[in-house]
Amino acid sequence: MDIDMNTRLAKLREAMHKQDLEAVVIFSRENRRYFADFAGSSGALIITESEALLLTDFRYYVEAETKSSDYFEVIQHPGGQLTESVGEHLKKLELKNVGVEDSLAVGEMETLKKAASGITFSLISSAIMEIRMRKDESEIASIREGIRLCDLAFDHILHFIKPGMSEKEIGLELEYVMKKNGAEGIKANHVIASGERSSLPHGQATDRIVQQGEFVKMDYGAVVNGYFTDFTRTVVLGEPSEKQLEIYQIVNHALDVALEHVGPGKVCSELDEIGRSIIRDAGYGDNFGHSLGHSLGLDIHEKPAMRSTDQTVLEPDMVITVEPGIYISGWGGCRIEDLVVIRENGIENLTTATKELQVLNN
Question: CA dist 39 to 54, 128, 141, 180, Å?
Fold first, then answer.
């Protein structure tokens, strides 16, 4: 599905006007990809009311010309001098007020100010994230495909996990299946945590050997066209104990109730309380310490988030996870997560994997 770059640039220029800025400079990889479809590791965009420049070095010049020249004038700068080159071009354009992201390191910002002396810089990151909150259909298509790969990997792993293998083996198998079927990468905080380690919300895979009778919590995501996905399921090896059944049922109920309430016009903080209250009323409020969910896209965590401090009202085309959990130190934990798109009349749940507790007797 084609990317509507003109619409994205128009929204950015509208944000510039609201802040009385003559131009915006973009260095971050995610925003370069969003506004210019350029994914090289080094580059910068300069966008004014009438001009759009993409600066990169010899390594990525041909790629930039191929993918971005319909919207940007591509300029090759000397290697290792990106920030200085951006400053020089800003001076040539005789600009006074320029927006910049907060992603620049302090030293790079000082270099930019020195190269572009006389220009006043203002942060525009929050305005850019406001633009990126609502996904277009090309973005949703990439996220949908990523979740399809997550679902496929989960179906595969149910027949793969056996007592005696390590968490790392499970994680590598998930990664292999997703990449074999088209993922360009996986999210960095790939969580495979078993037994008592499943109480760690972000417990990365280790050499720990999974045992009969244990929870295995798997939180992973495929990356497609630069877009992240997020998927969590918790399974049990062999027949579950009464406590495992209790914990799983509470978390699953919290997810179901939250999904019934998520939709356009709903306030993030209020949705967090709805899901959290189910767990709190069951006696495990102190064992659920993270937000009920978060948006994602070109970053794994984007705004908005369903937490007590976020008053964002959900709008159509926003994408958000719903991921309640219970984590009991020294015993274990459980999280179940779906990924949904907010639509005009409700939600589209992109995650199709079963939420029933999978009892593995492989």
Answer: 12, 17, 18, 22
Residue 267 per-residue DSSP state:
B
Closest CA relative to residue 42, chosen from 53, 55, 31: 55
Other Cβ atoms within 10 Å of 111 Cβ, number: 18
Strands laid side by side in the 338-343 sheet: 319-322, 338-343, 346-349
Question: What single-letter DSSP state applies at residue 163?
Answer: T
The first and second tokens of residue 271, run together, are 């949705």
Two tokens, residue 326: 């219970």
Read off the pTM.
0.95
* DSSP codes of every residue in 93-161: TT-SEEEE-TTS-HHHHHHHHHHTTT-EEEE-HHHHHHHHHBPPHHHHHHHHHHHHHHHHHHHHHTTT-
Mean pLDDT across 302-320? 97
d(CA 82, CA 6): 25
pLDDT digits 0-9 by tens, 326-353:
999 999 999 999 999 999 999 999 999 9
* Domains annotated on the chain, with CATH: 5-133 (3.40.350.10), 137-360 (3.90.230.10)
Amino acid letter, 335: R
Q: Is the dihedral of CA 254, 344, 223, 356 positive or negative?
A: positive
